[in-house]
Amino acid sequence: MPESAVLFKTQGSQDQEVVVTTGLEIFSMLKFFKRKITLILTFIFACISGICPLIMVKLIGGVTTDLSLGESQEEGDFMKSIIKNIIRMAIADAVMLVTNLISQCLKSFCTPQFAHDLRSEIYGNLIVKPIEYFDNAQTGTLIARLSEDVTLIKEIYCDKAIEASKNCAFALAGVIIAFTTSWLVSLICVATLPLIITIFMLTEKCVGHMWHMYNDKSTYAMDKAEEVITQFRTVKSFDNELDEYEKYAESLDGVDSVYTKSASIQGFEYGILTFIENGLIIMLFYIMCYFIIKKPKYGLQPGDCITLIISVLIAAMGFAGMFSSSDDFRRANISSRKVLSIINPEVKDNEVPSKPEIKDVTGKVQHALNNFNMTVEPGQTVAIVGESGSGKSTVLHLLQRFYDGYEGEITIDGRNVKDFSDKSICSNIASVPQTPVIFSMSIEDNIKYSHPSASNDEVVSAANSGNAHDFINNISQSYNSEVSQNSLSGGQKQRICISRAIVANTPIIILDEATASLDTESESLVQKSIENFHGQKTVIVVAHRLSTVKSADIIYVMKEGRVVEKGNHEQLLSLNGVYSDLVKYQLQ
């Protein structure tokens, strides 16, 4: 017969997910954008619509020049030139309208899909995380990844980035038209760029740090609210509502404080840049007038003055629009970094043997297990008992590979469980927890939750084995009855959970103190359910009530993380040791 060994020891430190911060994490999100061609076309049409206004500006300059030279031209040529430029402006305006419409339609087509794909990717990676991950994570933080962070990333790609591309087209086209109109005057304008870039870089560093603090404090406030709402009965029972309110208000004050500082810095940046921009326009207007009147040899016309001033103004607006989006890009980059800390596409896909056998389980877990040894033969019912904190549930958690932080090895049929994927482990081990979980769906769907393709006959058979069939039939709509977590008694819910474990048809079933919170009658029914598959499956039971484990083939008695006694009920009683003391204590 194949043999298996299991050795446990928790490590002092836990593995942490490390994401290398490059400052460009937002671009890593593009791989989750399935409609990339649509996105590229959206950018292209947005850029075209951004160039059209500059073309119109160039044409307006031509019309202005024609008007200023009207007296020196023949009337026919003068009107032909005016009409030709006006027709070109109308065409440019029509192109801008069409490209804007196409860009908006394409954006509305790809935006919802991107949010859907990204949320699905995050959720898909979350649900395969080990239990240890959720032990160390705040629920509010994980919800924020699915909601706020996805929304922010979506807005960057589908709104801000498209707008930034249009602003970029504005800026580049404005610069090109300005230089083709008068390279000398344009160079004078370019001389102000170092000052603008210096101001932007200084505020960029300050605001980036502020937004990181803002994001962390917002997440903390959300976690605090989620914690109080989910545990409100405890808060209410100790009359701590006002105290919790003050703590939450204090966390919001921290958020507001950071936001105020960030907004102040941004306001200063915007004010300075606007001042420089307006000063540049005034200076440009003066220089153009000077060249037209005092330096006619440069050949500048009044229309060139209009063209140059408006093109520089639009270019400045384009650069300002790009700079104004930088704050959103910073925030989205932080969100992308946090999303990437969740997404981990590597999942092993090795199958556990069809007939797993667990034998020679030896383990040592810091603070919980100490040289723990356990052997389970296929088809046996094995029980683990002991005082609270002795490490009973830890054995089950490590066996199901909820935690990997231990020394030694856990093997099934001689193969280390670390070589198996989490999915393979879970598909061969069904678990019944101490607190039964019922989903808001029909009883049949609740039972089939572990095996969605199970037939009606398999569901009924599992319910019979789980001693749930009779009470289900007494409900008005039987298996089709819609239930929720609060609509059934504890015993009924637990029997449905046992039926769910049975219909999964796994070789191993684990029950973690499944009768701890039940009354005597419900406990008896659950006990009969366990006995119904005795010998057919390998059953491992952790129990506080010893009446549940009297019929077990082997009972392991734990104390301070190690096995101190082993045997069946009668053998352990005859030892007059720890197990006997536990029985006497419960009989008192």
Automatic annotation (TrEMBL):
UniProt topology in membrane: Multi-pass membrane protein
Annotated keywords: ATP-binding, Membrane, Nucleotide-binding, Transmembrane, Transmembrane helix
GO MF, one annotated term: ATP hydrolysis activity
Keyword Chloroplast: no
Domain of life: Eukaryota
GO biological process assignments: transmembrane transport
A Pfam family the protein falls into: ABC_tran
InterPro entries in alphabetical order: AAA+_ATPase, ABC1_TM_dom, ABC1_TM_sf, ABC_transporter-like_ATP-bd, ABC_transporter-like_CS, P-loop_NTPase, Type_1_exporter
GO cellular component: membrane
Broad class of where this protein is predominantly found: membrane
ABC transmembrane type-1 domain location: 40-331
Transmembrane stretches, start-end: 37-61, 169-202, 270-293, 305-323
Domain ABC transporter: start-end pairs: 347-585
Protein name per UniProt: ABC transporter family protein
Localisation per UniProt entry: Membrane
